[in-house]
Write a structure and sequence with these properties.
about 375 residues; alpha/beta; Aspartate Aminotransferase, domain 1; Aspartate Aminotransferase, domain 2; 7-stranded mixed beta sheet; 4-stranded antiparallel beta sheet; 12 helices
Amino acid sequence: MGEGVYGYGPTIMEVKRLVRAADRDVVDLVSGRPDWDPPDALRAGLREYADSDPPEFQYSEERGLPALREEIAARRGVEEAGVVVTCGTVEANYLAMARALERDAGGAVLVPDPAYPYYPARARMLGAEVRRVPVGADGSLDPATVRDRADDDVAAITVTNPNNPTGAVYGEATVRELVRIAEECDAVLVSDEVYSHFDRSGRFTSAVTVDSAHRVVTTGVSKSMAATGLRIGYAVVPPGLRERTTMRHVLTTIAASRPAQHAVLRALRETPREYYAEARERTGRRADRLVAALTEGGADVVRPEGSVYVFARLPGVEGTLSGARRLVEGAGVAAMPGAAFGEVRRDWIRFALTSDRVGTAADRLSAFLADQ
């Protein structure tokens, strides 16, 4: 997928090619692929499943293993009937956005600017008009700005909480107001909460706490359990949207991986809270180190309240593929160009905190910026 495909800007694959082509050592801070171990119970669940009987290697129930759906429902305080286990959070987001658009309640999707690039690209793939909503100076979305851009032609409002790439976290008042806006314009709020375990502000509020027919919550274990390859996510869907959401899921993937679901179920039941706290603290320490180096070097930085990224504007470095190449060649650090995330901060750069070499990257960036 290259420049211009569904409006997708510079891609991770393009930046990765720069890393491979480099004639020097490069610290890769491009994507949010955790470098720490998954939970012990996850590994144990996979090993355990290897000895299962043949029927256990067939399709699971379409909406996911009943025991897993029940575990999720109990943890989230929702009805089991509203849980759809998906092939990662990406599929859950796709299902939610597609269901919002097929209601004949409008053809536009509101997307924060900046935002995870799959949102606008997916909306265009589904034939929707994309309307960008700029974030404020602190990197967060102001509900008043969302309201200004919402009307009867808006079918979906997307939000990531905590935000990717800015790290902003939305508390109860903001989440409730976003749901209210969706209700007023007959839209669906699609709340992607895949980084919820990385909230360092203590303010994170899930949209599942707001009872509404106009909100779908999506999340998964890719980041929280350091298991992006398992592809297990889920959506929490209100009653009026469930049947067609499930059917689209069946027609798209039939069901999520049964062995992966089994392993995730065991990990949910047996993983102590300390595992998630350690991951949150680890990325927090890395964020502090990187923010300090960038700030000292004269960069504008949004100090992240959550997620696993630092977003910054570096003096003399464009947030484009050319800017990424300059960082690779001049600093030995690879990161995602801001142009991939929207227009408002296209001169910014996103650094992932999912490498144990963040400290090395901070030192290299300090030296690089000192020479500018």
